[in-house]
């Protein structure tokens, strides 16, 4: 079994030649974050360089459309070529490299960036640390077997469920608070603040929620300070804010840009998450998806840091592929998982940065065979990449939340973690004396050793059916999805 000492011995082999990257990797090592496993390494060092330089070339020509005037002004002041009529920016490569180097210096000086979002996974270790989040516009109603708009009571019920589940580390807004219980629509200007207030009331695990403007941010920060106990505690462990998204290809709209700048100026997590779609918003190759996504992340980081020199802009991705047989976007295709892992590897190995991947989104419309298969595949890749903070409960491309799916997801994550423990080989686990004592043809069922180790040696699922068959009709009554509903 690979141990921590062996992993630490392997880490120096993964340093990049980029200046300051070694210091950035040292930061990751100090917080005991696992590296991408060798079997998941996708690129050679030369390929990482090619991806990096391709991103720089994209930023130089055609550049990006940055629709926030404050960011355009800052970029022009720093030497970028700005076409104000088109809101287009061409980024000089030295300016982008300077941004990367400055962020690497921040890590070397001890800065610890936080990637705060409810539907992605960032570098983490230990047991399952699930997230309730997603700001879904639909809830899967098991009783009605339908997808419908969520109500205030739906949000309360899901927040309470997240609070009750020990594997759930943070509870954000799994659904959007769109209507009151009597069906009246919530004033859109109050949705984010009322959502955060409900979360603060019903859980001690407050996590990421939406923020759209400066006025909202003031209220959300005040709520966060109440939840955490002080301004200092809130800034150390923030809540009620989240990442913003680009519009692929190569657009940052004015609202997203201004909110990112506000977050940076307030000392809060500042994260940008592109959603490039292979065959749609980027060319039909995986490498182009990685390079284009990286260009958007680096472009936004350069823009925000130009306007706020203390900013540390983290990156994430929820990539997809356009399924030409249906015309729909797929977020759980093997290519989508590879794209996410690819840009994460680029940021980790080339720059020394953590990077969040889109673990939460799948294509299944409802809890069932496809949803379990897709989540197991995505969680397995996520786990092997050194990330254990899994978003749970999302279906239908991230548009819907299902309590039943959340429990299925936790079961899948627990299975993966148990498998990931491997096999310990030592004097105690070999049990040679016990084998000799029982001898040929012996049984270990009645041994005290079996009783003492039955809980630690074997994992027992809460939902999967391991009983003997009692006939197909009876067996179907023990279906894991139905059991998930009973427990939710």
Topology:
Layout: H1 4-10, H2 21-30, H3 45-60, E1 64-66, H4 69-77, E2 81-83, E3 88-90, H5 93-108, E4 130-132, E5 138-141, E6 146-148, H6 152-164, E7 168-171, H7 191-202, H8 214-228, H9 231-236, E8 251-252, H10 254-265, E9 270-272, E10 277-278, H11 286-307, E11 313-317, E12 320-323, E13 328-330, H12 334-351, E14 355-357, H13 369-384, E15 394-395, E16 400-401, H14 403-420, H15 427-430, H16 432-438, H17 448-457, H18 472-477, H19 480-487
Parallel strand pairs: 1-8, 4-7, 5-16, 9-11, 10-12, 11-14
Antiparallel strand pairs: 1-3, 2-3, 5-6, 12-13, 15-16
Description:
This protein is globular. The model is unreliable at 1-18 and 27-38 (pLDDT under 50). The protein has helices spanning 4-10, 21-30, 45-60, 69-77, 93-108, 152-164, 191-202, 214-228, 231-236, 254-265, 286-307, 334-351, 369-384, 403-420, 427-430, 432-438, 448-457, 472-477, 480-487; strands spanning 64-66, 81-83, 88-90, 130-132, 138-141, 146-148, 168-171, 251-252, 270-272, 277-278, 313-317, 320-323, 328-330, 355-357, 394-395, 400-401. The strands form five sheets. Strands 2-3-1-8 form a four-stranded mixed sheet. Strands 6-5-16-15 form a four-stranded mixed sheet. Among the domains are: 1-123 and 243-358, Alpha-Beta Barrel (TIM Barrel); 430-487, no CATH class. A hairpin with a 4-residue loop joins strand 12 and strand 13. It has 488 residues and is α/β, with parallel strands linked by helices.
């Amino acid at each position: 079994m690979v141990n921590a000492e062996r992993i630490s011995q392997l880490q120096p082999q993964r340093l990049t030649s980029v200046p300051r990257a070694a210091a950035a990797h040292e930061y990751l090592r100090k917080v005991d974050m696992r590296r991408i496993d060798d079997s998941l390494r996708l690129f050679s060092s030369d390929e990482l360089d090619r991806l990096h330089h391709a991103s720089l070339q994209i930023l130089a020509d055609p550049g990006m459309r940055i629709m926030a005037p404050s960011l355009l002004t800052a970029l022009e002041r720093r030497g970028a070529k700005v076409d104000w009529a088109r809101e287009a920016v061409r980024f000089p490569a030295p300016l982008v490299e300077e941004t990367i180097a400055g962020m690497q210096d921040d890590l070397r000086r001890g800065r610890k960036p936080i990637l705060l979002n409810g539907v992605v996974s960032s570098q983490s270790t230990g047991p399952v640390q699930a997230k309730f989040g997603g700001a879904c516009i639909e809830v899967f109603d098991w009783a009605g077997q339908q997808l419908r708009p969520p109500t205030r009571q739906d949000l309360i019920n899901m927040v309470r469920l997240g609070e009750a589940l020990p594997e759930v580390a943070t509870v954000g807004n799994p659904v959007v608070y769109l209507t009151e219980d009597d069906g009246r629509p919530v004033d859109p200007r109050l949705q984010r603040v009322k959502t955060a207030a409900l979360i603060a009331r019903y859980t001690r695990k407050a996590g990421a929620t939406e923020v759209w403007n400066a006025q909202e941010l003031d209220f959300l920060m005040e709520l966060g300070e109440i939840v955490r106990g002080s301004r200092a505690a809130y800034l150390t462990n923030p809540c009620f804010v989240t990442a913003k998204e680009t519009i692929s290809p190569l657009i940052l709209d004015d609202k997203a840009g201004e909110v990112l700048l506000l977050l940076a100026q307030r000392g809060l997590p500042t994260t940008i998450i592109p959603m490039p779609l292979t065959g749609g918003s980027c060319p039909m190759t995986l490498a182009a998806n990685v390079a284009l996504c990286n260009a958007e992340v680096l472009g936004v980081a350069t823009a925000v840091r130009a306007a706020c020199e203390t900013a540390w802009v983290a990156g994430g991705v929820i990539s997809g592929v356009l399924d030409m047989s249906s015309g729909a976007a797929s977020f759980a295709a093997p290519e989508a998982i590879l794209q996410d892992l690819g840009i994460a590897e680029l940021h980790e190995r080339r720059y020394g940065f953590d990077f969040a991947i889109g673990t939460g989104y799948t294509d299944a419309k409802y809890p069932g065979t496809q949803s379990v298969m897709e989540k197991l595949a995505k969680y397995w890749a996520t786990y092997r990449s050194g990330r254990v903070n899994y978003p749970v409960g999302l279906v239908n491309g991230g548009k819907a939340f299902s309590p039943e799916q959340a429990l299925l997801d936790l079961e899948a994550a627990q299975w993966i973690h148990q498998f990931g423990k491997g096999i310990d080989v030592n004097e105690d686990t070999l049990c040679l004396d016990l084998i000799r004592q029982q001898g040929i043809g012996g049984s270990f069922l009645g041994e005290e050793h079996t009783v003492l180790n039955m809980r630690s040696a074997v994992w027992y699922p809460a939902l999967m059916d391991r009983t003997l068959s009692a006939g197909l009709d009876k067996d179907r009554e023990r279906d894991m999805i139905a059991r998930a509903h009973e427990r939710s």
